[in-house]
Amino acid sequence: MYTDWLIDRLRCPETLNMLEYNGSNYESGAKVFKVKNDILSIVYPDDLGGDDAKYNKFYNLLAPLYDLNERVMGKLLAGVDMIKGRQQIISFLGLKPGMKVLEVSPGPGVFQKFLRNDIGEKGELVALDLSMGMLLQCQKRNKSLNVQLIHGNAQFLPFADNSFDALYHFGGVNLFNDPQKAISEFIRVVRKDGIVSWGDEGFSDNYKHERRKKLMLKINPGFAKPRPIVPDSVYDVKENEVYDGLGYLVVAKKL
C-alpha cells in the first residue's frame, strides 16, 4: 500500500514522533491511526472546529460532483477552460522525473495525471486531504497512477522534516483555519532548495470583468480572503496569474 520510503517518513501529526506499523494500523505511543480503504487516517486535531470543520463537511458532500461542477461552472460563469488551466498550473512547478512530491488538498485528483506525467513512474507521488470523500474520488479516478493517499490536516502534516523534493497545493488555503501555519508546514516537509508551491482563488489586478467578479464573490467566499504572506524561509519566489486572472500560484524554493 505505502512504499518503504514513505513509511520511514510518516510521523505523528501532534508530536512528530515516528510511527510503528503493527500489521494493520500505525501507532505512536498510545495513539493508534487506522487504515481504511487502503488510506491511513492521521488527522489532528480530532475536533477540527472553525472553517476546517465547516468546509470539510461541504467537500465530503460535494466530492462525487466536484470536478464536473468546477468544469461546467468555470466555463459558464467565468469563461475558463479548467483543463487547460490545470495543465498550465502544473507547468509552472518545474517538476523533474524521479522527484518525491506531496500534493496537499488534491480534491478529487484532477491534477494527479499531470503530476505523474512530470515525475514519471519512478517518482513518488503522495496526496493528503482533510476530506475522506475527496480521497475516495482520487482512488476511484486514478487507480493506475500509483498515488499514495493520506487522510490528514494540511496545518499538521504527518511527515518528517525535509521529506519531499516538492510540495504542491492549489485550492483551499484561503479557507483554512490558519493559512500561515499551513504554509509553514508546507515548507517544513520540503528539503532545502526544494519546490514549495501554493495557490487559490484570487482576482488579479488585470481582471476586468466586474459583473463576473461580483457573482463569484457571492458564490465562493475564498475570493474575499486575503492571500497568505510569503514567508522569509523561501527564495526565488514567483507569483503566477492562473485561470485567466481568477487565481494565483506562488512557486518558491526552500532556504
Please, could you describe this protein's structure?
Helices cover 31% and strands 25% of the residues. The chain has helices at residues 4-9, 50-62, 66-78, 82-91, 112-119, 132-141, 179-188, 210-219, and strands spanning 20-21, 26-28, 31-33, 35-36, 39-41, 100-104, 124-129, 147-151, 164-170, 190-201, 234-242, 247-254. The protein is an alpha/beta fold and 255 residues long. The protein has one domain (34-254): Rossmann fold, CATH 3.40.50.150. The protein is built from 8 helices and 12 strands. The chain is globular and about 55 Å long. The strands form 2 sheets. The protein has a 9-stranded mixed β-sheet. The protein has a 3-stranded antiparallel β-sheet with strand order 1-2-3, with no helix packed on it. The mean pLDDT is 93. The relative contact order is 0.14.
CATH architecture identity: 3-Layer(aba) Sandwich
Examine the coordinates and then state which fold CATH places here, giving the name of the CATH topology. Rossmann fold
SSE sequence, one letter per element: HEEEEEHHHEHEHEEHEHEE
Helix segment tally: 8
Low-confidence stretches: none
What is the H level of CATH, i.e. the homologous superfamily? Answer: Vaccinia Virus protein VP39
Helix percent reads 25-40%
What percent of residues are in strands? 25-35%
Largest sheet: 9 strands, mixed
The total number of structural domains is 1
Query: If strands are numbered along the chain, what order do they take across the biggest sheet?
Result: 4-5-8-7-6-9-10-12-11
How far is it from the N-terminal to the C-terminal residue, by CA?
Answer: 33 Å
CATH classification, class level:
Alpha Beta
Mean pLDDT score: 93
Structural class: alpha/beta
Q: What is the count of β-strands? A: 12
Q: In one word, what is the shape? A: globular
Cα Rg: 18 Å
